[in-house]
Structures are given as C-alpha cells and as structure tokens.
Amino acid sequence: MLAAVVCAALGAGLPTTVSHAQMFSLMTSSETESLGNGLYAFRHGPYRNIFLIGEEGVIVTDPLNVKAAAALREEIRKLTDKPVKYVAYSHSHWDHAIGGAIFKQDGATFVAQEKCRDNIRETPHPDLVAPDVVFKDRHRLDVGKASLELFYFGPSHSNCLAVMLARPANVMFVVDIANPSTGWFKEYNPTAPDTYLHSLTTVLAAVERLAAAEGVKSFVGGHISLGKGADGRPFLRPAMGSIESVGERRQFWETVIAAVKAEMARGTVGEEVSGKLAGSDFEAKIADFDRGEMDMLYRVIASYLQAGRP
Q1: Which residues, 6 or more positions from 192, have their beta carbon under 8 angstroms from its beta carbon?
Q2: Prediction pTM value
Q3: Residue 170 — very low, low, confident or very high, per pLDDT cuts 50/70/90?
Q4: What is the pLDDT of residue 1?
Q5: Which residues of 159-181 are buried (b: 16+ CB within 10 A; e: fewer)?
Q6: Is the dihedral of CA 13, 16, 21, 22 positive or negative?
Q7: Per-residue pLDDT at 24
Q8: Cα 52 to Cα 69: distance, rounded to the nearest angstrom
Q9: Domain span at residue 74?
Q10: 266 domain residue, yes or no
Q11: Angle 218-156-227 from CA coordinates, rounded to 5°
C-alpha cells in the first residue's frame, strides 16, 4: 500500500515508477517543516500530519504508526519542552491513527469525532488509543494563543473524518478527501475503501465554504505530493498547498459520478459502464490517469448507484 501511495503521488506527467533508493528513503525517513505561527508539518514515509505549539503545550494530530509517533515525539522535543496536551484524530483508519500510546503515557488527552469512538470499539487494534473526548459537529482545542478547531461535515472518507483549522496560522489539515497539489487527480486507491460517495462532494463543498468564510488560503494533506524537476527527476513538494485543490477534487468526483449516473440512466448495466465511458473528454484532465484503475473506479461508482448511493 505504501508503494502505491508513493507512486500515485507522481502526477503532472511524472514517471509512474520511483527508484528503489528513492522509495526506501520516502518510506523510512521523517522530517519536520515549519509553517509559521507555531504550526509544523511532520512527514513519516509518504504520510503527513501537523502539530501546533502554543504557550501552554502542544497539539498533535494523527500519530500515523508506532515508529512515526516515536519520531514525532523526538521532533517535538527538539522544538519545545512543553507537554503534548492533546492528540486529535482526523479519522479512525489504522494507517493514520495507530501509535498514539507514547503520547497517552505522557498524559495527552485524545480527541475524535464520536463515530470514531464507535469504530475503534467495533474494530480494536492493540496500538490504537481510544479517544477520551468525542464531539458531534465541532470542537476547539486551545493551548494558549494557539488553537486547533475540528469540524465534522458528515460521512466522506470514513464515517467520522474531521477537518481541522489551525490558528493563528489559519491553515487547514484535510486528510484523504483532498491533497495539496494542482490538477485533476483521482484517488490512489480506485476501490474507494470506506468512502461514502453519496455525501463526499457535499463534505468537500462544506470545506470550501469554511475556507472562504475564514479566509483560509492553504492546507496540509495527509499524504505527500511529488513534483518533477527540470531534469525530469521527482522531488518532494512542500507540505502546504493551495486550498483550491479541495475544489478540484470536488469537481473530479462530481464529474465522474455524473457520467456514470447518466450512462446507467441510458440503460447500461454496471459491468459495461467502463467500456462506454472509456475515452471520455474528462479523462484527459486526470494527470495520473491509468486505464485499469479508472475502469475499476467506474465499476465501484456503478455499484454504489445500484445500491441506491450516491
């Protein structure tokens, strides 16, 4: 899965393979990037989170995994001796939420949307810490003059995914439903696991409205994004990118879902939708286009429609 994440980050005309040395480096290394106003982005392998340092302590988001959490704690200790007061989950998927015990042992309070607590109870993991505090729609964490606000807009990628807004940096943290980059990118996993397509575009639109209301221009995503240098070699893009990528992802889903829906309305059965839509004009806008993956995604969307969703 990690290899797929890395390769999928190669958009905008990049090669679809990475050298073994580059892959090993991306999958094993960690780094911290200052975003200003006490906000930092942390990368471990192809995954990212953020943490926020305030006068009274530190707020950490997704611990990612056991090794990543240990590396993250060391990075924080290089910057401050203040305690980690809170760990905020973006959602409960294991590839983002595992490893927080190291912060729990230090006294941190864990926070998540209320459905995440139910998910963890139903499918526990020995390295997954249950939240101490849950919220329904909105929750604010304060560590002095710095704060992290969590928003739940409904099911999207998981049934409990929260979007976060760090202040005073005024930067969002948006995991898995969008990622900083430019262009029209499809999901790296075309099977869309645990994705609620019937409400995903509504959630993305809500994120756009929140950004507009709060004057947010930038966000950090939960995964890396790679660019291409003048020599043709891939490079790691900065953690923070334009909030406009959220709108681009919404447009992608709206267009593809509408195309499948229209084809099925013409009487095409789900198994034949991909053949009918292959070569559609909008496919040319997808920078990391792959015929096999796109056909799979068409079939997944058709299956949702046959089940009454989206």
Answers
A1: 297, 300
A2: 0.92
A3: very high
A4: 41
A5: bbbbbbbbbebbbbbbbbbbbbb
A6: positive
A7: 64
A8: 15
A9: 2-244
A10: no
A11: 40
| pLDDT at residue 3, as a whole number | 44
For residue 289, tell me if it sits in a domain.
no
CATH of the domain at 225: 3.60.15.10
Q: Give domain status of residue 155, yes or no.
A: yes
Q: What is the pLDDT of residues 52-87, one digit of tens each?
A: 999 999 999 999 999 999 999 999 999 999 999 999
Domain count, the chain: 1
**With helix as H, strand as E and coil as C, how does the chain read?**
CHHHHHHHCECCCCCCCCCHHHHHHHHHCEEEEEEECCEEEEEECCEEEEEEEECCEEEECCCECHHHHHHHHHHHHHHCCCCEEEEECCCCCHHHHCCCHHHHCCCCEEEEEHHHHHHHHHCCCCCCCCCCEEECCEEEEEECCEEEEEECCCCEEECCCCEEEEECCCEEEECCCCCCCCCECCCCCCCCCCECHHHHHHHHHHHHHHHHHHCCCEEEECECCEEECCCCCEEECCCEEECHHHHHHHHHHHHHHHHHHHHHHCCCCHHHHHHHHCCCHHHHHECCCCHHHHHHHHHHHHHHHHCCCC
Confidence band of 171 (pLDDT split at 50, 70, 90) = very high
**118 inside domain:** yes
Q: How many residues does the chain have?
A: 310
List the Cα angle 17/70/147 in 5-degree steps. 95
Token pair for 5:
């994440």
The string of pLDDT tens digits covering residues 270-299 is 999 999 999 999 999 998 899 999 999 999
